[in-house]
Amino acid sequence: MLNRPGYLAAARMPNLVEAMERGLRELGYIEGKNLKIEYRFDGQKLGLDTLASELVQLGLDTIVAVGTPAAFAAKRATTTIPIVMAPVGDPVRYGIISSIAHPGGNITGVTLYGSELSGKRVELFKEALPDITRLAVLCNGSNPLSQYAWEDAQAAARQLGTEALLFMVREPDELAGAFAAMHRSGAEAVVVLPDSMFYTARQQISVLAAEHHLPAMYEGHEYVEDGGLISYGPNIVEIARRSALLVDKVLKGAKPADLPVEQPTKFELAINLKTAKALGLTVPATLLARADEVIE
Predict the structure, then answer these.
(1) Which of 7, 108, 183, 252 is 20 to 30 A off residue 75, Cα-Cα?
(2) Which alpha helices (DSSP H) does the chain contain, by range?
(3) Are 6 and 63 contacting, i.e. CB atoms less than 8 angstroms apart?
(4) Angle, alpha carbons 156-158-275 (nearest 5°)
(5) Alpha-helical runs (H) found in 129-272
(6) Is 189 found in the same domain as 250?
(7) Are the beta carbons of 191 and 155 closer than 8 angstroms?
(8) What is the pLDDT of residue 75?
(9) Confidence class of residue 201 from pLDDT cuts 50, 70 and 90?
């Protein structure tokens, strides 16, 4: 039997694709033998709604939606084909599902939690850099997650006596201008909100942050490995691999409404001491002691 899932994402993130494929292989699925995945990435800017409709028209067994915008697009495109979120941020808050335990409809998957982690990232960042008073927050204006993530980050900054300034982009070619604007504003550091576009452009973002002497906080350790200063969040590569378990259940006939949405249980703190040294910063020993990954 040939299983035909679709894969929908705003950007091509090879490590997440490979993680899900590895998870499916571990469960006995072999591309070309009993598996044929139809991939759709919005690299040509056709629009996620258009790509989701293409997948629906193929009559697939399920659609794997990576990221909140992709999940919304898949939900708009079909109420019958099972959808597996792999992963998305805070799907209950955004109205994608009814609840974590009982998602309802044709959607299940894995959540990253989402916007509420933005406040925690600000708190950790302030612990690392206690003297900052102006904090830039970079968001993708096209991502529905950004509104809530910005609100949570702003509230956390306010409680810590720090002014938060919002900088919004919609395309990667706007990043250089955004960082230049941060520098002009007098921002002393930047929190980069979760977004697939930023994840794909993480090396460019790390370079821009270094050029403008801006310490930066990110969602995942991949940013830190590519030169970012600090990150906090779940391991999204492992989450992508685990999403294969839900894809397997759906392909075997399980109804998404009966499959509780999985949530991460571990959150990783990563710190790049080489970047800290280049920025002339000393990371508190108490924070280093709690780090899951330290790059020296």
Answers:
(1) 252
(2) 14-26, 48-57, 68-77, 116-128, 145-159, 175-185, 196-200, 202-211, 221-225, 236-251, 273-278, 285-290
(3) yes
(4) 65
(5) 145-159, 175-185, 196-200, 202-211, 221-225, 236-251
(6) no
(7) no
(8) 96
(9) very high
Nearest 5°: phi and psi at 156?
-65, -40
Q: Is residue 263 part of a domain?
A: no
**214 within 8 A of 186, measured Cβ to Cβ:** no
3-state class (DSSP) for residue 21: helix
State how far the alpha carbon of 154 is from the alpha carbons of 146, 176, 187, 248, in Å: 12, 23, 14, 39
The CATH number of residue 124's host domain is: 3.40.50.2300
CA 18 to chain centre: 16
What's the average model confidence in pLDDT over 251-262?
A: 95
Strand (E) or helix (H) holding 62 = strand 62-66
Residue with tokens 């790509």: 51
Cα–Cα distance, 134 to 179 (Å, whole number): 14
Which residues form the domain of 146? 116-233+268-295
Structure tokens belonging to residue 231: 């990150």
Say whether 267 sits in a helix, a strand or coil: coil
pLDDT for 139 equals 96
> Do 209 and 191 share a structural domain?
yes
Task: For residue 240, give the amino acid letter.
Answer: A
Same domain (yes/no): 61, 27 = yes
